[in-house]
Design brief:
The complex is a heterodimer of chains A (769) and B (226).
Chain A (H helix, E strand, L loop, with lengths): L26 H6 L14 H11 L5 H10 L2 H4 L4 H9 L7 E3 L6 E6 L2 E9 L1 H6 L1 H17 L4 E11 L5 H21 L3 E8 L8 E11 L14 E6 L9 H5 L20 H16 L5 E4 L4 H12 L5 E5 L12 H6 L5 E6 L4 H10 L4 E8 L4 E5 L2 E6 L1 H6 L13 H6 L11 H13 L7 H4 L10 E3 L6 E4 L7 E7 L2 H6 L1 H18 L3 E10 L6 H21 L3 E7 L3 E2 L2 E2 L3 E10 L16 E5 L10 H7 L11 H17 L2 E6 L4 H13 L3 E3 L5 H6 L6 E5 L4 H10 L4 E7 L3 E4 L3 E4 H9 L1 H6 L1
Parallel strand pairs in A: 4-5, 9-12, 17-18, 24-27
Antiparallel strand pairs in A: 1-2, 2-3, 3-6, 4-6, 7-10, 7-11, 8-10, 9-11, 12-13, 14-15, 15-16, 16-21, 17-21, 19-20, 22-25, 22-26, 23-25, 24-26, 27-28
Chain B lengths: L3 E6 L6 H10 L3 E6 L10 E4 L19 H11 L4 E4 L1 H8 L6 E3 L7 E9 L15 E8 L3 E3 L2 H9 L3 E5 L12 E5 L5 E4 L18 H13 L1
The chains are: A alpha+beta (769), B alpha/beta (226).
Chain lengths: 769, 226
């Protein structure tokens, strides 16, 4: 459905959610009182959208129908501003046999061989995490885990990409510790290892922190489940937690509008999590799957019962309908009526389609796990989604009209200041030249919150549970063993760079993709598939829409060039307070397959006497660099050049070298360039190194040219590795050797590892302890 | 004979598969035990794994101690069945009064997940006999409520009778545990509780090394000898 955007959309910024409406508004009453005024604007629907609903139904919607459409047509659920652009991910998808289920499902599913498939997805919980950091972040983890569970997979790991305002800002001290403890609380209690992620700071996120959570799941091919109802007479079962008044309208009121002065009053729109119930739900679902009792399944996340019922019914295809008795939904608060029940985002709930013959066994397995399960309806062949409340019909709609939602082609306009920003080249900035100046510059970067050691955060997360974690932060990617017998594994990395994207959203998004791709390859895994979380400001702002369209185009083109399909993702708009939008911040997750996790490449130098080499080409590229920001507070110029062919060749070298056992360590170069990468490799592995630089030392140390990595070569493999690089056309240069008590750059400076560690590790504890 | 070592799954247990893997690597057969069954399935020893049993609601381990399986386990432990509680399992054994003391919130008030060094203080138990007295091990600590506390008389009695099983190495305990206590055993030595996780330290590929395997091989040796 396409609705003309008249610009009349409400921002919903100052409203606080649904009015409690009469529970008695029925389909019959709606037909009899066509003129009754309804609070569509307070629910986030425009006048045009309200008119479209009335036209579809041939009458005004009931209060329950209005609630259902308002959440289903919210930006968060319907992707109404982004869908027209996201099609490029399918249109430009590279040929790939590995994709078993793609965009549109709860999460993409990828074949990794040996009969295994993995599913992974990245999702935002930005707005709730600002309003209530602990519960917002906790339920973000819970929600993405249920998405993965709904595909038929066992969740096996989580990651998170976090962005906050300035590290020393008072509000960051409220939001960051709350978010981290929320992720720690929920993920640890679920028994899912947290294997890495990102933590970055920038003033643009001060009013809009970004909390993007990723979950990885593993299944056998035959276990794949889809969100589709079929078979008239099959039962609709709601199981898990009871439905309460928490998170009502979260998708429409909270996730799909900008923050204004009334943000604190949105707290009732944030859900409250119970990870213990979710753990039971996971084990219960996996036992139900194994018993073959589930015909279709959908998790309850944004838009709760409204979304689960419409998507299951719509997923069944033409003619499939559903009859639901809303009064049978188990409640935590008996005063809730149909609109609230439909909109509630109470956590830890799932909805399954179950054959009548299997119902008794289904309910018995739920009882064994102390999970409450209730038959709330049946699948029909009417093509209508019908819901009753104590016998009265309160919803009667074609489910596809709610599931599909409107599509907007919003105006996009390159912002006026963009050219001046690109012209503001960092070449004009004063640079360190002498050994002591370069030494001080490195220590400044290492202790800057963006590059500082993140143990303060990661030591609150359980990385060990399940006993399959081969690599986790601070390594380049997380690596999880999938099969203990064959040592098959998967690697995952998430990356984003708002500064690069602010300068050039097309190139910046490709750089985020390239970095995650490189990080996966740096462990020795072959990159295979992509997920994303696209964090942007308000789509009603043409400048934001331009950033968004450029980012999507960049990601689609980049994935085609690298041969890795986008399997799914998430869009988060309205990340702005007042007129100030965040930097465009697409976060890209790349998944790779590791043939043999015993041959993984760690990031650290843990052995002395190994030859250190730099792979790739270095240019004087400082636009958007960490150095420009830390040393001068500068953001301008062009981001590093994108060379996806070089990225591909570099990845080929790293994967082949890991397989052949030619390398002892590999670490990608990104923020802070070679200097920061060498320091990290020394600190992670516990060995110093001595290197010599050819050419301009400042450029060599701090430039952020892409498609580069630093490696330590296994003893005796130097010639074979050099030949491998030559074969793939990857430039390689010897830098020096590992070992010694310090990071030494010949003729310029030496920093003892103790001093390096102190600079790197003191920052976050000093800020947040 | 091949020893049969039970691993109890409570609702919210998380490290049960890890404990079962450690049992298998040590050469025994892991036997899954279910919280709701009053049945120990003829096991020769039992492990209560880490996790958040019953969501740690009320107090860590406070609800799990009333699980039906505990009605069998407690008398069996008093009769000599070797029982090891790890992390949440340790908390449950304290709540069940099979071990003295309790575990409080970490002194830093945050969850701690990292490798720690511990020293084995008593090697005369079925869970520690494969170690050398004073041997230092690298294990994994991951808990929010891991600070061991007991009254002064109990602490003195534990020290005097050699019932401090393992202690955090170094000057300060990472979580504020009294006397740096990381694990204790009961009067007969057969019941042991550990806050750090030995089952996460059985393979250098997925943990800090293999130092933790000795707890499980000790039990296997004790059972085969018995």
């Amino acid at each position: 459905m396409t609705i003309q955007d008249t610009g009349a959309e409400t921002t919903g910024a100052e409203t606080t959610g649904a009015e409690t409406t009469s529970a008695q508004d029925t389909v019959a009453a709606a037909a009899a009182t066509p003129q009754r005024a309804q609070p569509h604007a307070q629910l986030g629907l425009t006048a045009d959208e309200y008119a479209a609903i009335t036209k579809t139904l041939g009458r005004r919607p009931t209060d329950a129908e209005l609630a259902l459409y308002s959440v289903m047509w919210s930006e968060h659920c319907s992707y109404k501003s982004s869908r027209a652009h996201l099609r490029q991910f399918a249109e430009k998808a590279p040929p790939a046999d590995a994709l078993l289920a793609g965009i549109g499902q709860n999460a993409g599913v990828v074949d990794i061989g040996q009969g295994y498939a993995v599913t992974f997805k990245l999702e935002s919980h930005n707005h709730p995490s600002y309003v209530e950091p602990f519960q917002g972040a906790a339920t973000g983890v819970g929600g993405i885990v249920r998405d993965i569970l709904a595909m038929g997979a066992r969740p096996v790991a989580v990651m998170d990409a976090l962005r906050f305002g300035p590290a020393d800002a008072a509000d960051t001290r409220r939001v960051l510790p709350g978010v981290v403890s929320g992720i720690s609380f929920y993920g640890n209690c679920l028994g899912l290892p947290n294997i890495g992620g990102e933590l970055a700071f920038d003033p643009c996120y001060a009013g809009n922190p970004l909390v993007n959570a990723l979950c990885l799941g593993v299944m056998r091919h035959e276990d794949l489940k889809l969100a589709a109802a079929s078979g008239p007479g099959n039962k609709v079962v709601l199981f898990g937690s009871r439905t309460g008044p928490d998170g009502i309208g979260g998708a429409s009121v909270l996730a799909s509008a900008s923050f204004g002065a009334g943000s604190k009053s949105k707290r009732p729109s944030v859900q409250v999590g119970d990870p213990f119930m979710e753990k039971l739900l996971i084990e219960c679902c996996l036992e139900l799957y194994a018993a073959g009792l589930v015909l279709g399944i959908q998790d309850l996340g944004a838009a709760g019962v409204a979304c689960a019922t419409t998507e299951l019914a719509a997923g069944g295809g033409p003619g499939v309908g559903m009859q639901v008795r809303l009064d049978t939904v188990p409640l935590r608060d008996a005063s809730l009526g149909p609109p609230e029940i439909l909109m509630s985002e109470s956590q830890e709930r799932m909805m399954a389609i179950v054959g009548p013959a299997g119902l008794e066994r289904f309910l018995a397995i739920c009882a064994r796990w102390d999970v409450e399960a209730t038959v709330i309806g049946e699948v029909t062949d009417t093509g209508r989604l019908e819901m009753t409340w104590h016998g009265d019909l309160v919803v009667d709609i074609p489910p596809g009209t709610a599931a599909e939602g409107p599509v907007y082609h919003r105006p996009a306009q390159r912002p006026a200041g963009q050219e001046a920003l690109l012209a503001d080249d960092p070449a004009r900035l004063a640079r360190p030249g002498t050994g002591p100046q370069l030494r001080a510059a490195l220590l400044d970067l290492l202790s800057a919150p963006d590059a500082a050691d993140k143990s303060w955060v990661t030591e609150q997360y359980d990385r060990y549970v399940r006993g399959e974690t081969v690599l986790a932060a601070p390594h380049d990617a997380g690596l999880i063993r999938v099969d203990e017998q064959t040592s098959l594994g998967v690697a995952l990395a998430v990356d984003g760079n708002g500064r690069y994207c602010r300068l050039d959203p097309y190139a910046g998004t490709q750089l985020a993709l390239a970095e995650a791709y490189r990080n996966v390859a740096a462990t020795g895994a072959r990159p295979l598939a992509v997920t994303n979380c696209l964090n942007f400001g308000a789509p009603t702002d043409p400048a934001v829409m331009w950033q968004f369209t450029e980012a999507v185009r960049g990601l689609a083109d980049g994935c085609l060039a690298l041969g890795v399909p986008v399997t799914g993702g998430n869009v988060s708009f309205y990340n702005q307070t007042g007129d100030a939008a965040i930097h465009p911040t697409p976060v890209v997750g790349v998944l790779g397959v590791h043939d043999d996790v015993r041959r993984r490449l760690p990031a650290g130098f843990s052995q002395a006497g190994l030859r250190v080499m730099l792979l790739g080409r270095t240019g004087a590229e400082f636009g958007g660099s960490l150095w420009a920001r830390v040393a001068h507070g500068h953001l301008g110029g062009r981001p590093p050049a994108v060379d996806l062919d070089a990225e591909r060749s570099l990845a080929d070298v790293l994967v082949a070298a890991a397989r052949l056992g030619l390398l002892a360590a590999a670490h990608d170069l990104s923020d802070g360039g070679l200097a920061v990468a060498l320091a990290e490799s020394c600190l992670t592995g516990g060995q110093g190194c001595a290197v010599a630089l050819a050419g301009d030392a400042f450029t060599g140390l701090f430039a952020e040219s892409a498609a580069r990595a630093v490696v330590a070569v296994s003893p005796g493999a130097e010639a074979e590795f050099a030949a491998l690089c030559a074969e793939h056309g990857v430039p390689s240069a010897g830098l020096g050797v590992t070992g010694g008590p310090s990071l030494e750059v010949t003729g310029l400076f030496a920093i003892p590892l103790d001093e390096l560690a102190a600079a790197h590790r003191a920052t976050l504890p000093a800020l947040f302890d | 004979m091949t020893a049969r070592i039970g691993v109890i799954t409570f609702p919210g247990s998380l490290d049960d598969q890890d404990a079962a893997r450690a049992v298998r690597r040590a050469g025994a057969i892991p036997v899954p035990l279910w919280h709701g069954d009053r049945d120990l399935r003829r096991v020769d020893a039992a492990v209560l794994p880490g996790g958040f049993s019953y969501g740690d609601y009320l107090r860590c381990g406070a609800i799990a101690r009333f699980a039906p399986v505990m009605a069998e386990l407690v008398p069996a432990a008093r009769k000599g069945l070797p029982v090891l509680g790890i992390c949440n399992g340790f908390q449950i054994l304290c709540e069940a009064h099979l071990l003295p003391g309790a575990l409080n919130r970490n002194s830093g008030l945050r969850f701690i997940s990292r490798e720690v060094q511990v020293r084995v203080e008593n090697t005369n138990t079925p869970w520690t006999s494969d170690y050398a007295p004073g041997q230092e091990l690298t294990l994994v600590l991951k808990s929010g409520e891991g600070a061991y506390v007991a009254d002064q008389a109990t602490l003195a009695e534990l020290e005097a009778s050699g019932r401090v099983l393992v202690r955090y190495a170094g000057a300060a305990s990472p979580n504020g545990s009294a006397a740096g206590i990381a694990g204790v055993c009961g009067e007969d030595g057969n019941v042991a509780g550990l806050m750090p996780h030995p089952e996460h330290a059985i393979d250098a590929l997925t943990g800090p090394g293999e130092d933790g395997l000795g707890f499980f091989t000790s039990a296997v040796r004790a059972l085969v000898a018995a």
